[in-house]
Specification:
alpha+beta, 4 strands
Length: 70
C-alpha cells in the first residue's frame, strides 16, 4: 500500500524536540517507523511512548493535513 501523502519518503527522518529530548524517527515503510532501534506501526504509537498519553502522531510531529477542497 502507498505511504500516507502527508509522510515524507521512505528513508526520511522526522525530528521533534520534546522536553529537551530530540526525537528522531526513521520512516521505514507505509506503516513502519523506527525510533530508538524499535519498530512501530504508527507515529501515534511513538508519540504515546514519548508523552505517555494518546496523541495524534501527525500533530505531534507537526505534519499538517493536506488541504481539503471546498
Amino acid at each position: 500500500s502507498a505511504l500516507d501523502p502527508r509522510l515524507p519518503a521512505v528513508g526520511a527522518v522526522l525530528t521533534k524536540e520534546y522536553k529537551d529530548q530530540s526525537i528522531n524517527v526513521l520512516v521505514r515503510g507505509p506503516r513502519q517507523f523506527e525510533w530508538e532501534g524499535r519498530l512501530y506501526n504508527s507515529l501515534s504509537a511513538i508519540a504515546k511512548e514519548v508523552t505517555g498519553t494518546n496523541y495524534n502522531g501527525f500533530a505531534f510531529f507537526g505534519i499538517a493535513k493536506k488541504k481539503e477542497r471546498d
